[in-house]
Amino acid sequence: MTSSQVYRNEIILDDVSDIPEGMTGLELDERPNPDGFGYAGTAAQFDDAWLIPESEWQARIQEQQETQSRISDLVAHYKIPPKNQGSLNYCWIYGPVHAMELNRVRSGYPYQPLAAAQAGACVKRGRNAGGWGMEGVRWIGQHGIATEGDYGSSPAIQPSYASPAMMRAAARNKCTEWVECRPKSVPQLVSMLLRGYAVAIGLDWWRHEVTACEAIWLDGAIAIRIRNQWQGWGSNGFGILRGSKMIPSDCVSPVSMAAIGGAI
Fold it and tell me: What is the per-residue pLDDT for 17?
């Protein structure tokens, strides 16, 4: 196949790219579990049986493109906006929450925006502080997350973030299953993307967390399309990582969610 389509104004970050200007949100010393595994309950370690051989990557990417089954196709069809973390150091929760929203739509449910700021404020007890994607997903698995209809869409820490009413609203929307990929494993990340799942990835070089949406084929090699939560960034939030820039230090896919009228 020829190279995948690059969208107009899409940013490409590779081995020779400088770190993009702007806020960063990861604080590496707050990582709750250096190995990425060990959570009880609904967490699942990536199973080697899910690995898709590299020899199949190019063909699978072409199939997703031809059938318009990519996350970016869903975004375009349902007009799903990128999230906006504003001045919050909450990239680590915005990335996983957008993956939840996208995976829910992928499973046939209507798009419902979730209040990443509410869950992030709960995890950090009202502090505007960094964290890790799996930390956020684990919280939502245990306590849930409010919708933007309940909490508001502004990227702000509202006084009501942990009120009894807000926590009752959040409890209706819990992540029921997530898959933790091994840090630094591009094959595991690509395999999840080729299976159609959005994945939250933390990036050491950027000190930032984003949503990985799909694998693409660019200039004869694998690359990944991400969606960032900085207002006005890239092409509708989309950009491309390749080479060492796409190696994830934190990698989790929230694959199921009991939320807003039913499980995904």
Answer: 81
Flag whether 3 is in a domain: no
Identify the CA nearest to 247 among candidates 200, 217, 203: 203
Answer whether residue 1 is part of any domain. no
Tally the domains of the chain. 1
Residue 124 near residue 85 (C-beta atoms within 8 A) = no
What sign for the dihedral angle of Cα 173, 251, 238, 122? positive
Contacts of 248 (CB under 8 A, 6+ apart): 181, 183, 184, 185, 186, 189, 199, 201, 202, 203, 212
Domain presence at residue 4:
no
Residue 155 counted as domain residue: yes
pLDDT tens by residue, 172-205: 999 989 999 999 999 999 999 999 999 999 999 9
Query: What residue numbers bound the domain in which 119 lies?
Result: 11-263
Question: In one letter, which amino acid is 17?
Answer: S
Biggest CA–CA distance in the chain, Å, is: 54
Question: Residue written as tokens 């700021």?
Answer: 117
Q: Nearest 5 degrees, angle CA 142-CA 173-CA 234? A: 100
Residue 111 and residue 8 in contact, taking contact as beta carbons nearer than 8 Å: no
Q: What is the CATH number of the domain that holds 162?
A: 3.90.70.10
* C-beta separation of 155 from 87 below 8 A: yes
Work out the number of other CB atoms within 10 angstroms of the CB of residue 92: 31
Q: What is the band of 26 on the pLDDT scale with cuts at 50, 70, 90?
A: low
Tens of pLDDT along 205-235? 999 999 999 999 999 999 999 999 999 999 9
